[in-house]
Predict the structure.
Amino acid sequence: MKKIQNPKHKIQNKSNPPAGGQNSKLSETEVEHIAKLARLKLTRGEVKIFCYQLSEVLDYMNVLNEVETKDVGPTAQVTGLENVFRKDEVFPSLEPQKALSCAPAREGNFFKTGVVLEK
Amino acid sequence: MKLYKLTINQAKEGLKKKEFSVKELVSSCLEQIKKLNPKLNAFITVCEKEALKEAEEKDKKIRNSQSVIRNLPLFGIPIAVKDLFCTKRIRTTAASKVLGNYIPVYDATVIRKLKEAGAIIIGKANCDAWAHGSSGENSDFGPTKNPFDESLVPGGSSSGSAVAVATGMSLAATGTDTGGSIRLPAAFCGVVGLKPTYGRVSRFGVIAMASSLDSIGHFTKNVEDSALILNITAGKDPYDATTPLLDVPKYLKNLKEKIKGIKIGVPKEYFIKGIVKEIEQQTLLAIKKLEKLGAKIVNISLPHTKYAVAVYYIIQPAEVSSNLARYDGIRYGFGREKFGAEAKRRIMLGTYTLSAGYYEAYYLKAMKVRTLIRKDFEEAFEKVQAIVTPVSPTLPFKLGEKTQNPLEMYLSDIFTIPANLAGLPGLSLPGGWVNNLPVGIQILGPQFSEELLFRIGHALEQQRKNEK
């Protein structure tokens, strides 16, 4: 992955600067793109509000640039536990009827979904 | 006698002496719910019929054998359950419309343990949807109100749980704490809230928010009850690989021991500009009380404290966006169009900071500063055994005051977030009053030091009682 030290550059190069807020770093196009990645449908109004609100939060995060972290390792978890295994033993799990009991659509013992792969 | 006012221990004594029945105890809490819930909105689901039936069965068991009360530590005790915990055959919504119709087919490990200990679920408590929030206002089922002033927030995200215990709608309640969601509402509602060490209590069956931070705890009326419940909920769970194979101490055993000679740190970074003066005074007063009890007060520094909120609001939404990706409306629940504004905000934020090109600038950077915050605590705990701070820089705020400004809302957790980032236990307990509103005191300790936190908390609680 290409290392980008300052994400501002990428955003400032956008041809479409956000309308309105001077502090706003995220463009509407970017907000729409993130929403698409996250499988969220946003209204026009939401796109506008999120542009402003998310940019404000991201701005606040710049405070971390004050901290020197060159020789610091990342913390992903705090337990210190690694590779916790259990015995490979078979034991009863949820019956299909129970597992399916909340499904909005089913067919036999299967969850029914829309088409994912098309011909 | 107003049974809903009892602590767990008092209720157990009463049941043992046959002063009242389980049904009378449960009915007393149900009466409180009927009286207050229409105003306070602490519950999403009230299990009146089931709880009464369960109470009758328990009374029958007592008639057959008195020993059940002695053998089961929560026998007949009505508890509220944050609606984030899966409860078999009881709707579990996470206070989100996405799960508005979800009825789990299994119990969370904690719920199973509480039931096995004899507890009766009286209802599912309201909270910020998906536990996203500091005020309770993000619930898709309407905000919960502060019992001391209905125009104020009760704190969140475990808003309904705190209110239920504060008003006697239940004798105890479960909660979750990812950035302060137990400690803040405990402070705003004047009850005792415990956020255990990360991994001390199983997360299995609790709807995940941010998996490296989520901690499963509870609310009670006093410290003794809090210790009693942790005895039941703590321990290794094969269904949650982050629970270590570590002995669970008997938390009640040394609870009442003196705290003479214990070194307690007071970090200067928690007494900053912006904190309400009277809260600072109440906290210093509590520290004086601990000193009077023989504790040795030591001034310490946790230099990276001011970066905790920024670190948290990178790491937490990143984990949220990943955890909420599973809600697709295929296996259970409704589709993603039903996510509320705050859930969307966090999913978006997390998706952005994890996306290609931004990962290192945001997420990796945050993980590195998280290391420095952990180190701050490690170094502090070489000098002291526990740390005392305020829980919140402000008193309960007005409903609606911060809903339009997410960043301001996020800053409510400035004093609670560091413990989550470092995986430490934190106890929040009533420390005084300002303008007829409760002020919370926070006691932090090294990982798995809950026993000591209870001891210090209990000593402070008794001292306050004696001075009254």
